[in-house]
Amino acid sequence: MSRTPEPGRRTIGLVLMKSEEAQATVHYVAEECPQIRVQDRDTFFLLEAEESIRIPLAEVEEYLGKPLTMSRFLVCMTSYYGRAQVEDDAFVITSDMSQLEPAKI
Question: pTM to 2 decimals?
Answer without folding.
Answer: 0.82
